[in-house]
Amino acid sequence: SSLKSLEPFIEGLSNELIDAFIDQGQCEFLSGFGVPLPLRVIVSQLGAPQEDLPLFRKWTEAFIGNLSQQLDRAGTLQAAKDMVEFQHYFVDRMNERRNEPADDILSKLVNASFDGEQPLTDAECLSMLSQILVAGNETTSASLTEGIWLLIENPDQYQLLKDDPSPEMISRLVEEVLRISSPSSNMFRRTTRDVEMHGVTIPENSILFARFASANHDDTQFPEAATFNLMRDNLKDQVAFGKGVHHCLGAALSRREMNIGFKVILERMENFRLAEGASEPEFSANALLHGMTGLDIAFDKK
Rounded CA gap, 162 and 156, in Å? Predict the structure, then answer.
């Protein structure tokens, strides 16, 4: 129900972001729409003022840099300083919400309890907040942006959407983008027992690098898995959000943002293409996450 009440905000925000660039007939989509839509939603849900957006972007990049395993010593130190700054900022906010709760995720978190008795510690709250911050915006930014690129690259599938821009078709677009782009491509997991796979025994307590992106590109599950196909009959079988106890906390919010974001984009713009003189997009190097460094597009105003 709280998600349902967010829909007008997400739709209004989508329109506001498009208003800023639609008359130019082109934009750098990642920074113009992909990043600010989920970032502004998550900032509002964490009960912070919109003027703190640049701080949230900086902290997100620090957490992502730390996950990427690509930083040099200076970068690692700077990321650590930024993460500590994030913690100080939120400890102050958490204390405010304990005394005066509001209708936001932060208030629910600090006033929640474990087993109905023990409140969450500051460290537990901060750990969850950092996950909400990164998972709540970086992955959705990546999927929104790659979704536009996939439509440019697959005009036959884009035509299907133009012919039928119904909620059902937009939902199909979201699921197929999640499957083929898998924004959270890998994650570390620990085995709870011995497991045998393809004749190899993985011992209990082993640390694994589970590759969701590979599962989503398994031809035995998704015939011609490398093909972007909105009409697959098992679209919902993709595992971009994980499974079981590890299922992504923010999956419902991310899906909502993508469905509304794509709906508004398709209502207001058409004929997407790579901007003149722009090179094909590149992907950033990251051990866990998969996303473009940018996407320069041109389009026609509807």
Answer: 10
